Every structure is written in C-alpha cells, then in structure tokens.
Amino acid sequence: MADPTVLDAAHAAMEAAPEDAAARLRFYERLADGELFLLLTEEPEGDDISPELFEVADGRFVLAFDREERLAQFTGRISPYAGLSGRALARMLAGQGIGLGLNLEVAPSSILIPAEALAWLAGTLQKAPDEIEARIAGVTPPRDLPEALLTGLDVKLASAAGLAQAAYLVGAEYEGGGRGHLLAFVDARPGAQDALARSVAEALTFSGIEAGALDVAFFAAADPVSARLARVGLRFDLPEPASDRPEPAAPGSDPDRPPILR
To answer: What InterPro entries does UniProt report for this protein, alphabetically (predicted)?
Structure first.
C-alpha cells in the first residue's frame, strides 16, 4: 500500500475513537486544509465546474480524492477533475444539499460526508475573529495552554509559508487591567493579517477548547515590543515560501473565492 496521507491518519484516529469530539474536529480541519481532486463531467470553464454527481440512498454526492492517482484508480480512465482546497469545496457545496464521497473504495479514509456536515464545516470556516483595540502593558511566558492548541497552531503556521517572519506566543497584560494569551506576528506580509488571524481562530476552534480565547497582534521587527516578545515568548517559525512552487491552477486556487457549481 502507498504511504498513508494526512487524511488517512486523521480518519483512522476518528474511527478508532468514535466518541472523541477532538478527533472528529481534527479530521475536519485536515479536510479543510488539504488539497482535493474533484471528479468532473467535463473540463472546467473558467470558474465554472460541473462535478460528477452520484445518487445513493443517503442523497447526492460528489467525489473527491486526496491524491490524483486515487482518482485515476477509482475511475480506471483519464477523467477531468479540478484541484481545490477542502475549504473551497465545502463553501461551494454548502446549501446545495450535496455531500462528499471522499476517497471512496481506494483508500482507508473512504467515507461519505453528508451535506449537513459540509454545511457545518463551511459555516465554521466563515467565522471571522473580532477586532479590538488594546495597548499591551507587559508580556510574560505562556502558561497552562492545552497541548491540542499548541499542536494546532504549529500545524496551521507551518502552512502559512512566507506570510510572516515569525510568531510568538506570550501571556499579555493590557492597560486597563485585562490579561490573556497573545499570538504576536512579526513582520507580517502586507495584506496577510486577515489570513493569519483566521488561521489562529481556526486552530482555536478545531482544538476543541470550549470558550477559549487567543488574541492576535502584528508588529514590525523594529518595534521595541518585538524584542520583549522574543525574550519571553514561545516562538513559531513560519517556513520560507518555495521559490519554485507552481501557482495553483483555477478553479479553487483562492480559498475565499470557491468555484461555481453548475
């Protein structure tokens, strides 16, 4: 058998512990973050795509695979497909009453995901963090944070190549008496703040922490507070972007602009 994928591992963990909500959340997070290959009836036309629809007793489903060779193995022929992120696919299908058949018959992560679950995922991914204004009075080393959150942040930031130089997790005290935990990004790329803040919000949501909160802030490396962050904070290095990495092909290359179902 070929090497298992990230989705295979997340699916196996979910199946091994059906009552574990955290395992289910991790599976859906990996689904949203991963690249999928959606089986089509014909080649895409711009942003318009025509997925192959399958009717079963449980409803209508499109088929997607986390490897191109798995799609080819399922169809047994050369087939048109679109490569897009799981989050773009969930947003495209939300409200359509269409579920997702993932890796059917060709992988250990074979599963039918109902339309209701995709709608929940799309809604969860739509949530935007609140913006507030506050002045930092002091920073301290982070304490008593769940391991699930730290792991989630590590995974999310590893996929944010080139969006910032680094991030520091600290305890923060604010003028006016408030306190909490803060993830501070240093030298974020212009225009990347919203994507980074959403990634942190998703890491918090999918870690399964009830009523959790984590503030996000952005600083220049030359800002005096950045030196204080480096002294006491838990550092996350964001990888450098691969210079030879090809640009993703439309449709579905922009997760905030999913393809159009036709």
So the answer is: SseB_N
CB 35 within 8 A of CB 66: yes
Instruction: At 182, list the tokens.
Output: 């803060």
- Residue 251 DSSP label: S
Residue 3 CB coordination number (10 Å): 5
Residue keyed to tokens 């799981």: 86
At residue 191, the pLDDT reads 92
Candidates 119, 101, 121; CA nearest to 109 is: 101
Give whole-number Cα distances, 65 to 42, 74, 93, 117, 216, in Å. 17, 9, 16, 18, 34
For the ranges 32-46, 62-76, 130-144, the lowest mean pLDDT is seen at 130-144
Tokens read off for 166: 């680094």
Residue for token pair 């599963």:
111
**Cβ-contact 61, 54 below 8 angstroms:** yes
Predicted local confidence at residue 211, as pLDDT: 46
| Residue-wise burial string across 48-71, b where 16 or more C-beta atoms lie within 10 A, e elsewhere | ebbbbebeeeeeebbbbbbbeebb
CA dist 256 and 142 (Å) reads 32
Beta bridge partners of 219: 186
Contact between 81 and 71 (Cβ < 8 Å): yes
Residue 91's nearest CA partner among 258, 254, 250 is 258
E strands, 93-207, are: 98-102, 111-113, 136-140, 166-174, 179-186
* Tokens of residue 87, six digits: 């989050």
d(CA 63, CA 81): 10
Lowest mean pLDDT among 33-42, 123-132, 156-165, 211-220: 123-132
